[in-house]
């Protein structure tokens, strides 16, 4: 039986990947951070909480990484843990550099010293491209031009992965994944912020939705399909880097329009622009060319934009309806503080 270690198993991708690997017959180990309030709702939601072997790891602590690798003895490591919110990276640029960037070296150093046969997946991102292009599609050859502390940290992780591959022969790959969403997406990300607000507005639980830059365009795919690529990349004969995307870009404005349409409401009556949600620097446009993944991995996106929006809105509606009926089940929203009450430098301006 193969053994996999997933860092960040409590996050969106970590939870879906754990489910996927369990279904493939893997023994799955997942790292989590010790928090004063437990954060296992996604694993509970997918019904796999008791099937994943949990190991406490903080990415700033190399000894905990060493302990996790020694304990799990993995064939494959999927490094997904990160400070993944671009907005927060402007508020915490140093911690983001440490956790989303330098930690990649911490893990690869342990791999190199303990067992260089372990295969390694690095969660790279379309944010690497930044404002490299304002049209066309981005592929593995397009130059990177990061536009946030998060993207700069990920650029460091991207190159570290390639350096350990070339210098030490470690099977280390970068998945350059474009935005991927789901009902398990964190509420601070724009898609889930919208789907959750649409559900609450439709049920009379909320009156408005305040957003930042409505003109930015993103290539949004469906997370459960994207985690399959992570596994596929580690099953190839040679390590390589791949773009994973849908090949379509839509604006935040279009996402709003589509989401409100699903509940029969006009988005313009509820959405307002609030400069507190604008970033000091934003990425205007991202659209990915997944042809290399299609040719070499045999992967193609199955869920496109409209279907994705529908899945998210319907699931948030279903949750709030169950909540109104007094049901108690694993879910992030009831405990999530209102963004508006969180004071940060960007929000104060
Ligand atoms: P996510 O939901 O934010 O999950 C991030 C995970 O990292 C969580 O398990 C989190 O733990 C953990 N983590 C954060 N700080 C940590 C620390 N100091 N020590 C240990 N663990 C820590 O992110 P995601 O959407 O699943 O994304 C997975 C990875 O792919 C990330 O590296 C992200 O940057 C990258 N990525 C995401 C996308 C996307 O569209 N989703 C696209 C490209 C790349 P807690 O649960 O305790 O917070
Ligand atoms: O923002 C705009 C915002 O926070 C998307 C992460 O998974 O994908 C994600 O990063 C766009 C930006 O995702 C609001 O300015 C407008 O232009 O949902 P997001 P992201 O920054 O693209 C990449 C691939 C990753 O790697 C990251 O880890 O939406 N926007 N109004 C807003 N964004 C947020 N969050 N909230 C708003 O109110």
Backbone CA Rg: 20 Å
What is the second-level CATH architecture of the largest domain? 3-Layer(aba) Sandwich
Percent of sequence in beta strands: 5-15%
Supply the helix-strand structural class.
Answer: alpha/beta
Q: Please, what is the CATH homologous superfamily of the largest domain? A: NAD(P)-binding Rossmann-like Domain
Number of helices: 12
Organism: Geoglobus acetivorans
Family: Belongs to the NAD(P)-dependent epimerase/dehydratase family. GDP-mannose 4,6-dehydratase subfamily.
Cofactor: NADP(+)
Enzyme class: lyase
How would you characterize the overall build of this protein?
The longest helix is centred in the N-terminal third of the chain and has 22 residues, at 93-114. Helix 1 (12-23) links the parallel strand 1 and strand 2. The chain folds into 2 domains: 3-180 and 220-244, NAD(P)-binding Rossmann-like Domain (Rossmann fold, 3-Layer(aba) Sandwich); 186-218 and 252-283 and 304-348, UDP-galactose 4-epimerase, domain 1 (Alpha-Beta Complex), CATH 3.90.25. It is an alpha/beta fold and 349 residues long. Strands 3-2-1-4-5-6-11 form a 7-stranded parallel sheet, with helices on both faces. The protein has helices at residues 12-23, 41-45, 62-72, 86-91, 93-114, 149-168, 190-202, 223-234, 252-262, 291-297, 305-324, 345-348, and strands spanning 3-7, 27-32, 53-56, 76-79, 119-125, 172-177, 180-181, 209-211, 217-218, 221-222, 242-244, 250-251, 271-273. Bound molecules: NADP nicotinamide-adenine-dinucleotide phosphate (NAP) and ligand F7E. Ligand F7E is lined by residues 84, 86-87, 125-127, 178-179, 188-191, 193, 211-213, 216, 218, 252, 277, 279, 282-283. Residues 8, 10-14, 33, 35, 39, 57-60, 80-84, 99, 123, 125, 177, 179-180, 186 line the site of NADP nicotinamide-adenine-dinucleotide phosphate.
């Amino acid at each position: 039986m193969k053994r996999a270690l997933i860092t960040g198993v409590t996050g969106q991708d970590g939870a879906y990947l754990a489910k996927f690997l369990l279904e493939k017959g893997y023994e799955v180990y997942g790292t989590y951070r010790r928090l004063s309030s437990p954060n296992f709702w996604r694993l509970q939601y997918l019904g796999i909480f008791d099937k994943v072997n949990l190991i406490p790891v903080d990415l700033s602590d190399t000894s905990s990484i060493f302990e996790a690798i020694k304990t799990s003895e993995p064939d494959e490591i999927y490094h997904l843990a990160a400070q993944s919110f671009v907005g927060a990276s402007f508020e915490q640029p140093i911690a983001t550099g440490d956790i989303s960037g330098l930690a990649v070296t911490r893990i690869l150093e342990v791999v190199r010293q303990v067992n260089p046969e372990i295969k390694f997946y690095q969660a790279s991102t379309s944010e690497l491209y930044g404002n490299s292009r304002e049209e066309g599609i981005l592929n593995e050859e397009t130059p990177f031009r990061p536009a946030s502390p998060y993207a700069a940290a990920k650029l460091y992780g991207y190159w570290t992965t390639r350096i350990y591959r070339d210098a030490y022969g470690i099977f280390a790959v970068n998945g350059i994944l474009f935005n991927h969403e789901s009902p398990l997406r964190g509420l601070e990300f724009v898609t889930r912020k919208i789907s959750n607000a649409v559900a609450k507005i439709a049920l009379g639980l909320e009156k408005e939705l305040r957003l930042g830059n409505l003109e930015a365009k993103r290539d949004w795919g469906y997370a459960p399909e994207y985690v399959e690529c992570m596994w596929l990349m580690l099953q190839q004969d040679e390590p390589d880097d791949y773009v994973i995307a849908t090949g379509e870009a839509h604006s935040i404005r279009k996402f709003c329009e589509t989401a409100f349409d699903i509940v029969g409401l006009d988005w313009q009556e509820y959405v307002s622009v609030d400069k507190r949600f604008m970033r000091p620097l934003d990425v205007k446009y991202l659209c990915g060319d997944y042809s290399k993944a299609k040719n070499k991995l045999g992967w193609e996106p199955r869920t496109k934009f409209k279907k994705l929006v529908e899945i998210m809105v319907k699931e948030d509606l279903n949750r709030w309806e169950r909540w109104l009926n007094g049901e108690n089940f694993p879910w992030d929203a009831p405990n999530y503080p209102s963004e508006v009450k969180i004071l940060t430098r960007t929000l104060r301006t």
